[in-house]
Design brief:
Layout (H helix, E strand, L loop, with lengths): L9 H16 L3 H12 L2 H23 L2 H7 L1 H27 L5 H4 L5 H13 L2 H10 L10 H32 L4 H21 L8
């Protein structure tokens, strides 16, 4: 039995961290969102969106702990509504990203009209909250590392902080990779085409959410 001073054994911490890193590094709606922002809008908007996604994941964790995930898992209607909202939101973002990709060849005065970092942050929060896969991942994975003989709240909080930290790290790595690629591809025309291709991919990912199955 664990003690209150040791919520999880070291091997459990390492195991959870490894799983969280793999999950957050795997391209999905949030990663594509960050990559697209880095490609078409720059590092600061992309990082603002990544931080927004991290805060959104914290909210998902909090709501999951409060029982919202149980409702989603038990109600096919609630889960379907979440999937539709998530798909619609990603399609909306894909459209915005397509327009921003086209704007990579605009004059500086036109580029200055792009959303402030707070806008990117809010979009990142929305990506996390409307992503059914994030809800499923947190709902399915976290309980496996909870010691039922100890208070659940501090354990859930610790897991959430680790997961969010892994998310920020993963997005930072993807952001750096994309910005390095942009540095080696200076032509605006090429950057625009890459941005539009990523916008289409984000739209496809959004549509794929509609087929996310409800666990039996």
């Amino acid at each position: 039995m664990s003690t209150g001073r040791d919520l999880m054994a070291p091997e459990q911490w390492l195991s959870f961290t490894a799983v969280a890193l793999v999950a957050t590094l795997t391209p999905g709606p949030a990663v594509l969102f960050t990559m697209q922002n880095a490609l078409t809008s720059g590092s600061k908007p992309a990082f603002a969106g990544a931080l927004g996604n991290a805060c959104g994941l914290l909210l998902v964790s909090l709501l999951a702990f409060g029982g919202v995930s149980l409702l989603l898992l038990q109600s096919a209607l609630a889960f379907s509504v979440l999937k539709i909202c998530g798909a619609a939101y990603l399609l909306y973002l894909a459209w915005l990203q397509w327009q921003q990709a086209k704007a990579t060849t605009l004059a500086p005065a036109q580029l200055a009209q792009r959303p402030a970092n707070a806008g990117w942050f809010g979009r990142g929060v929305g990506v996390a909250l409307t992503n059914p896969k994030a809800w499923l991942f947190i709902s399915a994975l976290f309980p496996q590392f909870i010691d039922v003989t100890e208070p659940a709240a501090p354990q859930f909080a610790a897991l959430s902080l680790i997961f969010v930290s892994c998310s920020v790290l993963a997005h930072s790595l993807w952001l750096s990779l994309v910005r390095w690629g942009v540095g080696t591809t200076p032509k605006p025309q090429v950057r625009r085409q890459l941005g539009q291709a990523q916008a289409l991919l984000l739209a496809l990912v959004g549509l794929s959410l509609c087929w996310t199955p409800l666990p039996s």
